């Protein structure tokens, strides 16, 4: 996506303030802070505004009040809405934020992307907008949310999920993981890496990012292949033959390969390689593990083969990639 994007960060009563102010700063400084440090002309990537239901200050979790720039009614244009945590009380989240739900529904119909983190995911789930979609949340809330919103495909083992125009993050610190991912999604990988370096934020955390670590086709009508994809996303760091996921979904290997490619555009092997290389890229960007450790962590015990597959998918060696994009 190109051009200046409008993002609205909601301020909600009982929120953990960092899940609202952290993303706000990430979006506000994308394209500017790194450029300023590097002596380059700043180029803003997002036009950021903040809003509460009535435009008044909200009381966060604890003795902190934060005042937004606008009310919900004053928002005339937005490409992205970011919903922070809604606090520890999740049973009355809709009652406390009754005006937010229809507002989200209206903006969703207009094409706005909706991102939410931690308990804030429950507010989006309550609207029904996440029905039949993959979503994550804080691990401590997962079982309650499964009971309250059974139509959502909860994947709490993932730090960040993307499904259609909806983005979800796990716990409190995942607000930064999700924000950086959205910077990458809207502005590209280079801007996201520059933002991470400028703000000293660790890049999104390896394979916990699941569907967020690489753009792969997950929206199709073959439910059996969707189940196989989810199994691959959970297990790609392990060593296994392709017969395993085929057996998991009750298919012969030949039929599995045919159906998988028809649904996703990739063979299961290429899809698995993309998952592993995407996870390896994150580890190379944000840590100091050895190449052998990284290969092992993403399912390649053969270091030479890991380097070969990485080069084939990225065009550069793992060491070159680390030099270019590492923190």
Question: Can you give a write-up of this model?
Answer:
- 45% of the residues are buried.
- The two termini are 25 Å apart.
- Mean pLDDT is 88; it is low at 205-215.
- This protein is an alpha/beta fold and 327 residues long.
- A seven-stranded mixed beta sheet has the order 5-2-1-6-7-11-10, sandwiched between helices.
- The chain contains 15 helices and eleven strands.
- The longest helix has 19 residues, at 268-286.
- Strand 10 and strand 11 form a beta hairpin.
Q: Structural class, from secondary structure content?
A: alpha/beta
Query: How large is the share of residues in beta strands?
Result: 5-15%
Shape: globular
Number of helical segments with 4 or more residues: 15
Chain-averaged pLDDT: 88
Strand count, sense and closure of the main sheet? 7 strands, mixed
* Series of secondary-structure elements, N-terminal to C-terminal: EHHEEEEEHHEHEHEEEHHHHHHHHH
Can you count the beta strands? 11
Give, in spatial order, the strands making up the sheet with the most strands. Answer: 5-2-1-6-7-11-10
| Low-pLDDT sequence parts | 205-215
**Level of helix content?**
40-55%
Radius of gyration: 20 Å
Report, as a whole number of angstroms, the end-to-end distance.
Answer: 25 Å
